[in-house]
Amino acid sequence: MEKVKLILSLAVITASIIGCSSSKPLAREVKASINKDFVITKSVSGIENFTGKSTDQTYHDRVVESLTSGMTGKGITVTNDSPEYKITIEEVSIVETSILETINDTLAKNNGSVFKLSSVKVIVSGYVTAATGVGKSYPFSESKEKNESTTKNRGAMQHYKGENMHSDEYREKKLSDYEVLKMIGSCAYNGGKRAAKNIIKDVGTL
């Protein structure tokens, strides 16, 4: 019984903390604009060029769409028609590199094999200001990094083909073709949530 009471108490405390830390939607509609003149900066020295799987325009559209989606349900309307706030996307960068990894496992069938592994890092950053230019500037910055790796665990295709039955052969765990696009979308979405939180905070001080 005491254990049940403790669990219920912890649940109430957790819910209270979450409620206090979350931003409530605005009581009135607030208009905000998003700039669309930002540039996608790319640095690709990797082998695979996952970055090139999508066009700059596709990345650009995903940033705007995802950032807007991150503010959904907060009482903020994205429009260029008399906005009260401006959301400026300042940086969208993609850095893709690669490394060589040599398998060093004497029990593996392919010991000594060399794998070329890609690594991708994405950054989406910007700031929120009042459209009048007066008041505080609220920055936001979101980043994600994904790396290819090696494993000797059996993959789905190996199970299907009956290969690597004893899990003694290494393989590459690859990134998906549109991994970079998903990463950019995720960063922009989180940036939108942060931008919305800052707008709500600023409106509350008026």
Question: Which helices and strands occur, and which strands form pairs?
Answer:
Elements: H1 2-21, E1 30-34, E2 40-44, H2 56-70, E3 76-78, E4 85-102, E5 114-130, E6 138-147, E7 149-151, H3 156-161, E8 171-173, H4 179-204
Parallel strand pairs: 1-3, 1-4, 2-4
Antiparallel strand pairs: 4-5, 5-6, 7-8
Helix pairs in contact: 2-4
In short:
The protein is α/β, with parallel strands linked by helices and 206 residues long. 33% of the residues lie in helices and 31% in strands.
Plain-language structure description:
The chain has 206 residues and is of the alpha/beta class. It has four helices and eight strands. It has helices spanning 2-21, 56-70, 156-161, 179-204, and strands at residues 30-34, 40-44, 76-78, 85-102, 114-130, 138-147, 149-151, 171-173. Strands 1, 2, 3, 4, 5 and 6 form a six-stranded mixed β-sheet that branches. Strands 7-8 form a two-stranded antiparallel sheet. A hairpin with a 7-residue loop joins strand 5 and strand 6. Helix 2 runs parallel beside helix 4 (179-204). The longest helix is centred in the last third of the chain and has 26 residues, at 179-204.
